[in-house]
Write a structure and sequence with these properties.
The chain has about 350 residues and is an alpha+beta fold. About 25% of the residues lie in helices and about 30% in strands. Helix 2 packs across helix 3, helix 2 runs parallel beside helix 4 and helix 3 crosses helix 4. It binds adenosine-5'-diphosphate and magnesium ion. The site of adenosine-5'-diphosphate (ADP) has 11 residues, from strand 2 and helix 1.
């Protein structure tokens, strides 16, 4: 088991310092501004996610933390130490990429040991640590196989084992589950979260999948065009989106403008009835999704809202017959959130 290093004078990590601190980071590629001025603190032991659409600067940010990219401006600190000018191999960080990048001619255990071999650690200790870490990623006894003899999920676990074998305090993961099918991806999400808890190390996780970000993260940062739009816990970001972009990217964009006020209301917070109070409208679309049904309602006063309803009793046939019906939509005032802070 890993032991906690005691804090001592002269140690490179300052007690209480964030695992990662980015200050004023900017990175451009010619005309393209990949990161447009980023400030971010990630706490020690956090599962922190960078969430955003393709091209929003997530990978560039990760590569700046790892040291593969030099920022045009700004500073990178890891555990209180400024590493802006430190080479990637000298940073206390490992990275797991989407495509695994295992060595095909090496066995699983050789792949896992590789980093230790480069560091000059002896054969016996190497093998012991590799076996231990393979057990941790639930792949005991598969060390002799070649990567091609493994499933996609198993290969991703080998890549993880390789990244944690030298016990980095910080692990960066760039869309590590992107190549897996949905079921395996969901299994691996649970597994990664457990692994992070067991290891007690900081994970910085990149994904464009909002559900993945909401289920796995302690906190997340929502990226848009090289900037962070919001940082918070999954519940903060989902329940209290601060900008229109966040409201639309995390969850369904359900925005209304009434009396000069722009606000969102989440689909599951809306009560749909045939009569009574609330906004009047007409059901325009009905989509049966198994456990629930999704409705799109055109409102008489302008705008449309998505409503979801659990299928407690109604069958798919009942739901489909609701197209064209006149309905009333209501919600509690505390379930609406003003959208004010937009850059556009
Ligand atoms: P994400 O990971 O969120 O998809 P990236 O960080 O990869 O986004 O890219 C951010 C922006 O920077 C994109 O517009 C991308 O095309 C650009 N970019 C990234 N890397 C390079 C590069 N090596 N050369 C030129 N442009 C790049
Ligand atoms: Mg990327």
């Amino acid at each position: 088991m890993a032991t906690q290093a005691p804090a001592r004078p002269g140690a490179s990590s300052a007690a209480g310092a964030p695992a990662v601190r980015l200050t004023g980071i900017r990175r451009t590629y010619g005309e393209v501004v990949a990161i447009a001025g980023l400030d971010l603190d990630i706490a020690d032991g956090e599962f922190f996610t960078l969430l955003g659409p393709s091209g929003s600067g997530k990978t560039t940010t990760l590569r700046v933390i790892a040291g593969f990219e030099r920022p045009d401006a700004g500073h990178v600190e890891l555990q209180g130490r400024d590493v802006t000018n430190v080479a990637p191999s000298e940073r206390p960080v490992n990275t797991v990429f989407q495509d695994y990048a295992l060595f095909p001619h090496m066995s699983v255990v050789e792949n896992v040991e590789y980093g230790l071999r480069v560091k000059g650690i002896g054969r016996k200790e190497r093998r012991e640590r590799a076996e231990e870490v393979l057990a941790r990623v639930r792949l005991p006894g598969l060390g002799a196989r070649k990567p091609i003899q493994l499933s996609g999920g198993q290969r991703q676990r080998v890549a993880l084992a390789r990244a944690i074998v030298n016990r980095p305090p910080l692990l960066l993961l760039d869309e590590p589950l992107g190549a897996l099918d949905l079921k395996l991806r969901q299994e691996m999400q649970v597994f990664l979260k457990e692994l992070q808890r067991e290891l007690g190390i900081t994970f910085v996780y990149v994904t464009h999948d909002q559900e993945e970000a909401l289920t796995m993260s302690d906190r997340l940062a929502v990226f848009n065009e090289g900037r962070i739009e919001q940082i918070g816990t999954p519940a903060d970001v989902y329940e209290h989106p601060e900008t229109e972009f966040v409201a639309g990217f995390v969850g369904v964009s359900n925005i209304l403008e009434r009396d000069g006020r722009r606000f969102i209301v989440r689909p599951e917070k809306i009560l749909m009835t045939e009569t009574g109070d609330g906004e009047a409208g007409v059901v325009k679309e009905v989509v049966y999704v198994g456990g629930f049904t999704r409705y799109i309602v055109d409102l008489d006063a302008g705008g449309e809202l998505v409503v979801v309803r659990q299928n407690l009793e109604s069958s798919s046939q009942d739901a489909l017959e609701e197209r064209g019906k006149r309905v009333r939509l209501s919600w509690r005032p505390e379930h609406t959130y003003d959208i004010g802070r937009d850059r556009a």
